[in-house]
Amino acid sequence: MDSLNLDLINFIIDKKLDKELLRGRFGLEKENTRVDKDGHLALTPHPKAFGNKTDNPYIQTDFSESQIEMITPTFNSIEETYHFLEALQDIVTQELMETGEYLWTSSNPPVLPRDEDIPIAHMEDPLEEMYRTQLGHKYGRKKQLLSGIHYNFSFNENFLKKLYEASLSKDEYKLFKDGLYLKVARNVLKYRWLLIYLTGASPVFNKSYIEQCVALSDHLDEDSRYFPNMNSLRNSVCGYRNDKPFNVSFNSVNEYVQDLQNLVQSKELLSAKEFYSPIRLKPATGENPLQELLDNGIAYLELRMFDLNPLFKNGISLEILKFIHLFLVYMLLKQDEPFNEDEQQQANLDLDTLMMEGLQGSMKVTAVALIDSMQEMLRYINPDDQPMNTLLEHKKNIILNPALSYASIVKAEIQHSSFLHYHLIKAKQYANHSLEAGYKLAGYEDLELSTQLLLKAAVKRGIHFELIDRDDNFVVLTKGDHKEYVKQATKTALDSYSTVLIMENKIVTKEVLKQQGIRVPGGNAYRNLQDAMLDYEVHREKKIVIKPKSTNFGLGITIFTNNFSIEDYQRAFEMAFEHDRTVLLEEFVTGKEYRFLVMGDEVVGILHRVPANIVGDGVRTIEQLIHEKNKDPLRGQGYRTPLEKIQLGEAERLFLKIHSKDPSDIPRLGEVIYLRENSNISTGGDSIDFTDEIPISYKQLAIQSAKAAGATFCGVDMMINDIEQEATNENYSIIEINFNPAIHIHCYPYQGTNRKADDKILDLLFGKIDG
Amino acid sequence: MDSLNLDLINFIIDKKLDKELLRGRFGLEKENTRVDKDGHLALTPHPKAFGNKTDNPYIQTDFSESQIEMITPTFNSIEETYHFLEALQDIVTQELMETGEYLWTSSNPPVLPRDEDIPIAHMEDPLEEMYRTQLGHKYGRKKQLLSGIHYNFSFNENFLKKLYEASLSKDEYKLFKDGLYLKVARNVLKYRWLLIYLTGASPVFNKSYIEQCVALSDHLDEDSRYFPNMNSLRNSVCGYRNDKPFNVSFNSVNEYVQDLQNLVQSKELLSAKEFYSPIRLKPATGENPLQELLDNGIAYLELRMFDLNPLFKNGISLEILKFIHLFLVYMLLKQDEPFNEDEQQQANLDLDTLMMEGLQGSMKVTAVALIDSMQEMLRYINPDDQPMNTLLEHKKNIILNPALSYASIVKAEIQHSSFLHYHLIKAKQYANHSLEAGYKLAGYEDLELSTQLLLKAAVKRGIHFELIDRDDNFVVLTKGDHKEYVKQATKTALDSYSTVLIMENKIVTKEVLKQQGIRVPGGNAYRNLQDAMLDYEVHREKKIVIKPKSTNFGLGITIFTNNFSIEDYQRAFEMAFEHDRTVLLEEFVTGKEYRFLVMGDEVVGILHRVPANIVGDGVRTIEQLIHEKNKDPLRGQGYRTPLEKIQLGEAERLFLKIHSKDPSDIPRLGEVIYLRENSNISTGGDSIDFTDEIPISYKQLAIQSAKAAGATFCGVDMMINDIEQEATNENYSIIEINFNPAIHIHCYPYQGTNRKADDKILDLLFGKIDG
């Protein structure tokens, strides 16, 4: 085999382009068939929650209605891309689980009905649907259900441009760039057998697959079929291939396009996209791809030969994705080799040989040499990347020990089970992992929970998002021409600035609510002590709070719940005036506090917060019960989870002591032990959903309060004396309206249902998903 | 005369109501005729700028179209009320001066045309206009032009209620309260001659006044007429009186109402409001006043006998207003005295005697005794109020020395001049004071200048305002049913929350503008050093700024204007990353900075700021020129004025030294000497209006920028290379869009015109004033 192109490598290093060589843009597309709880192909329609499938840039259908395709945006790193794939996996899985469906974990189809009963994807465009019908006729629908992963890659544009400039090429830039991508494409085609060897993970299939293939296959058990040494059904003769190997040139874009156009004209192909090449040349936009390629050249390469790997939740691992990236770089830095009709046939033959005989003889030698050569390349361009070097060593190991390959491992595991059972168990395991991921948007865990939830909901229904300022949780959501700027999930264009300012200012809030006849704690604002003193007589027999207008960690606040002297009253004001030039005197309100989440004309959720507590079982100690309660995956530390772990620190120990308890006490069954006075979630408090328990009269008051301030999104904090009673003019009080209410607490409460506040935001911003 | 009611006084003190006794609510109404520059009654219509006169709660017309009535809201202190009157005086005067008119400073009319040429106020309600026409017929229009001040007063409601409760009265509360007010009213009627003696200030009138009066009068000069000892024409027989003294009972509300209804039924009066009593009983609302009085009792008293005093800009002094308040309290605390037909006639006679003979004999003795009694009362209820005691001493002095009375002083001054000339000079002097008050809203100088301007504009056009949170410059503007919450003048409901958030975040702003094809400084945001380093090559030959995302007093900012090494570049990023986890690299933009104030679809003003400077005259030193420039009333200290005084502190002296100058240097004529590097207004910089100089192409860009962010109110900061050139894609750059732009700088620039940004805000919030 040919060695590295050292001239090129040295040139790149010399021009200081080695760092940029390793940059690129990455995108992934992944198909999975949907299955029911028994592993049978789901015959239900594509879930409505994913919106209009042609509008959703992230979640679509492929050939079959039962085949979900997940499409990541392109990112500047494969890590980001991988995380987004995981996010999509979680989002889709969580939705499917609501109706008891799963994503099938194998590239090979699950238990299939008769070919004609496999539902073709219902498309709005009748031509699209007709194309699928024709494909079904031509290849059989079963074959079209083979699923996999496409890997889209382009080099960093700056790298390409600078390389072009440095190379003093006489060609125009487009030709230069096309030349590089064509070289990579040819090399990939030539050596794809190695990639397929290292990624293949579908050695076994179900007996419901295409009859001819099943007839030729061996049994693992009655239902589980295989061919000896075949590690990837879709890359085998029973796989996703054109009827015959078409000869399409990869020597130039012109030839590539010409050959494809000829095949379509001669009706060998229904359209250019029926060309099931393991690699495709792709233009920047998809309107009229071949013409685009001619006009603007290659924008990226699409590798189409990767199996879903049941060993990984997301169907592929980050390491393999990184390996593929390095492999592509390697394909660029190798010597260029002729790749015409003969070489193409040889490459196809190599693959078939691999599928029939496994990795043997000279191919094994070549495989090791290729990895060696990649290691050599790495020493030149990125000598510090020790993890990658280790990964390459590992791949070499797999080449030398075929039992270590993914396909071998999968097959071995199936031997203890069955094709159906094995993959179904995996599907359910991964589904549970996705469910546990819950509120998290993979790759975006640095964002606030409310923002993660909103973005998940956006992705689910196909609203495109872009993080315009990540630190600030500032996103742009786009659906067609409709654009919305959103900060921290609920700061949107639907609230006016003055509305926010009203809510921000407690004096103003109260005034506005009062004017609408809504009950707020009575009281006054004073700008000097004299005025306050004049009102002593008015207040002396009430329960009151005296506090600086801007409360600052509770400084300067006095609460009087009994008769108080004029001297106490004066001292309280003097203290408060030390902290602000305006001091509020407020009625001290009793009752329980509830947070009403109002969105538009609706109370979306109602929460009551309870101080950190545990409930005795008559067996375990307080300390043990805390430990137990903290196992809840909703509890974490540092505001990265909807609830916080209960601490057993100084504050909690002191609180227990005051109440004559000790962490080693064993509370009796059902006894509630509190660990804190305050009910903040941040100190381990519980959030309890009361949405269905609170009478409608209170909900109406919350909505009225929001309307009074003109708010679309707000959290109304209401004190209620007794939720068993309907609201009167006496038994409630609104103590605050908050803009930017947290939504995650209503989606993932300690007790209660997910109130889907994330979806409500999108309903209000973009309209509901049409039925 | 009767003494104080000591039982009542002691009861009040005993019940700790003495503080609340001195509280109250106060309102003022003031009429002035409008005159032209020669002191002739202005025959022009009521200025359009004051909006619809029946809707404007502050500025209306009275009998004549040429007679402006200013109405303060009611306040809890006479100080606030007085300041609001001053605000109205300034606002009206500033507007009138735009067309060369003035507020006439005397209660007595200016030079009048023939009676039939005096324009009756044009009213929307034809009945209102007809009533005025009838009055004109009945009394002559000239008499109706006598102007004055009405003083509305009520006791603190808490005081009344507590007094009622403490007194264990068997009457219902309404009767009790009415009783107190009726007592005050009777006493005021009885002793009003003293008030009129102490406040009368219109001893002279013009020969164009009513013929009979002129015929009987003495001359000061050909045009200036008087009656000996008459100190208040409107309170005299030639004044504003009913044809005959109607006998209306003040013994009970029922009798009062009955008597008035009888007078109307017998056609003696056109309506109850034609009863020109020196004091009126007033209900809380004015819809059907007599019925209201019967139903809900007296809400306040209206005293109607006060002259405009030409010695004071606002027609009355704060001291006199305070004196009147104490007089009213005194009327409550005096012994009650019978006041029936005989006593009413005696009171009228006393007044006529005063007008004919001055303060003589027993009335003089009574006057001194009354003041003595007020002093005695003060010792009981507010012994610490030394200023008031001094004021009472002063009033006693005036009683003993009639030459010290306002009327005597005014008459003496007119003797050196003429009625016309004296009052016209005063009118012009006061007008200049109002003009100098400029941006200030009297009584609200603690508010931001932009808010003061907005409120002035609101008052002018009759939009009601309320300070909902004074510290926060948070106001509610109301016009009919239309309510707007406004904070700091430009934070309104017309901007959405997301718009504000876009402007608040520089990264987002740039992104949004860029997407609309608007030029912003090029650059990138980096979240780690590695990514930044990869881009070194891209930037190395540019002029760039490297800065933390959130700039914090300029810390961590590096500017490279020449080629820079990779080490410098790295160090700059490292420094910036010490201050923020996101660092911006930005193109360093050249040109001059202009602030475009955009409101709606319009560029309202454009300012360029110039560092503190003086211009030489070849005579004075730098220090002297600074002193001279600082005399501009627009310059002050501590952000209470549109411009700040230029300092000659350490920074300025150092700056001069660096430029080889000294404060004692004498710059040559026209030489500009800068005192500062930075152009901030806060360090003495000049604001120069360029609104008319900047080509429209830049204005369109500013408007486009505002639209891109969705902003109604914003300040667009644009760098422009050369304002002589039209905008291209190269020669400008938007560096910031600011929400909450200051408006005062565009209304009161150092150089340029008032761009009326305050009015524009109201146009956008409430619609333009209809023509």
Description:
The structure is a homodimer of 771-residue chains. By secondary structure, the first copy, chain A, is of the alpha+beta class. The two termini of chain A are 59 Å apart. The mean pLDDT of chain A is 93.
List keywords for this structure.
ATP binding (chains A, B), 3 domains, five-stranded antiparallel beta sheet, Dna Ligase, domain 1, glutathione synthase activity (chains A, B), 17% strand, alpha+beta, 40% helix, seven-stranded antiparallel beta sheet, Glut_cys_ligase (chains A, B), homodimer, 771 residues, Creatine Kinase, Chain A, domain 2, D-amino Acid Aminotransferase, Chain A, domain 1
Which band does the percent of strand residues of chain A land in? 15-25%
Q: How many structural domains are formed by the residues of chain A?
A: 3
CATH architecture of the largest domain in chain A: 2-Layer Sandwich
According to CATH, what is the topology of the largest domain in chain A? Creatine Kinase, Chain A, domain 2
How many whole angstroms does the radius of gyration of chain A measure? 32 Å
End-to-end separation of chain A in angstroms reads 59 Å
Largest sheet of chain A: 7 strands, antiparallel
Quaternary class: homodimer
- Please report the first level of CATH classification, the CATH class of the largest domain in chain A: Alpha Beta
Low-confidence stretches of chain A: none
Shape of chain A: elongated
Question: Largest interface here, residues on each chain?
Answer: A-B, 43 and 43 residues
Number of helices in the DSSP assignment of chain A: 27
Q: How confident is the prediction overall: mean pLDDT of chain A?
A: 93
Give helix % range of chain A.
Answer: 40-55%
Q: Based on helices, strands and strand pairing, what is the structural class of chain A? A: alpha+beta
Counting DSSP E segments of at least 2 residues, the number of strands of chain A comes to: 26
Organism (chains A, B): Paenibacillus wynnii
Catalytic activity (chains A, B): gamma-L-glutamyl-L-cysteine + glycine + ATP = glutathione + ADP + phosphate + H(+); L-cysteine + L-glutamate + ATP = gamma-L-glutamyl-L-cysteine + ADP + phosphate + H(+)
Cofactor (chains A, B): Mn(2+); Mg(2+)
InterPro entries (chains A, B): ATP-grasp, ATP_grasp_subdomain_1, Gln_synth/guanido_kin_cat_dom, Glu_cys_ligase, Glut_biosynth, Glut_cys_ligase, GshAB_ATP-grasp
